[in-house]
Amino acid sequence: MRKLSLFFMGAALSCAFIYSGSPFVTAKAAEQTVYVGGMSAGFTLKTGGAQVIGLSEVVTESGACSPASRAGLKAGDIIRKAGGIRVETIGDLNEIVDKSKGKALTLDVLRGAENLQLTVNAVKEKQTNRYKIGVLVRESVSGIGTVTYIDKNSGRFGALGHSVVGENNQEMQISDGSVYECSIVGVCKGVRGKAGELRGLFLNDKHFGSAEKLCDCGIFGQICSEFTVDDLTEAVASSAGARPGNAYIYSTVSGVSPKRYEIEIVKVDKNNRENKNYVIKITDDELIAETGGIVQGMSGSPIMQEGKLVGAVTHVFLNDPTRGYGIDIEQMLCE
Hints:
Layout: E1 32-36, E2 40-55, E3 58-60, E4 63-65, H1 67-71, E5 78-82, E6 85-86, H2 90-100, E7 104-111, E8 114-121, E9 123-124, E10 131-132, E11 135-151, E12 156-159, E13 176-188, E14 197-215, E15 218-223, E16 234-237, E17 245-251, E18 259-268, E19 278-282, H3 285-291, E20 302-305, E21 308-317, E22 320-328, H4 329-333
Antiparallel strand pairs: 1-11, 1-16, 2-5, 2-11, 2-13, 3-4, 5-6, 5-7, 7-8, 9-10, 11-12, 12-15, 13-14, 14-15, 17-18, 17-20, 18-19, 19-22, 20-21, 21-22
């Protein structure tokens, strides 16, 4: 069994939104008909290079040193090229570094929105006799989340409802990715002070689609031709008229089929700059018994009110797992 919770390292599951000081304007999406989601999905997202997740020392004949640290590399950096050669995988980087034999090597690095060129001199590791620079890297990330909707006409989908952050608490960027159907096989219940999580298996033989964009409103992409929408419910996606009061969500907390659970929308704030447009409370006794409330992996669960898709679950309150935040569906549709 593959435990897949890498995305969701913390209860806030937060969307990072940088306010520049200019007036905040909420974009208005055209009202459209969608298929309502609620099914869990497994995401494997490529970082577009070798992403640094840590720095380490290299033990040489003359002692330990960290060429990467000396060069100015930081956790979160994405190494796109080394010595002018495109880096797609960890193997690519290792091969280029070893072949440098300690000569100065130029790294093309993406740090947030900034493109940098850093120079590093690899050193020969005593144990392996290979040249290394002392970085821990990855080429992709995997995790589970919930699909919010599929556009009826285009087959475009939106999921998660929030950004994905790495170890340095920066929003991650992706080049592309694959999405698979997912079966939930266990739940770690949420309790006061500690977020719970869904545990699931990627169904690698059941391709859902491709992930093409990651932003502070979630993950967006295209479903594949093999995925069938026959069992999904159609609804108008619009937050017009959304108000405090009774509502419900669709979420999958066991197996592959979403179920409907009762909630209450406690507060509506359509202009919240962090996409925390709803405060919600889980009122469904069955869901509370199974999960304790909102848990990691439920992000993206569609929020329905009066037959309309008005938003998606995004956050959980650490001090009360029955409460959390949701994003306005129109923010997702605009992406």
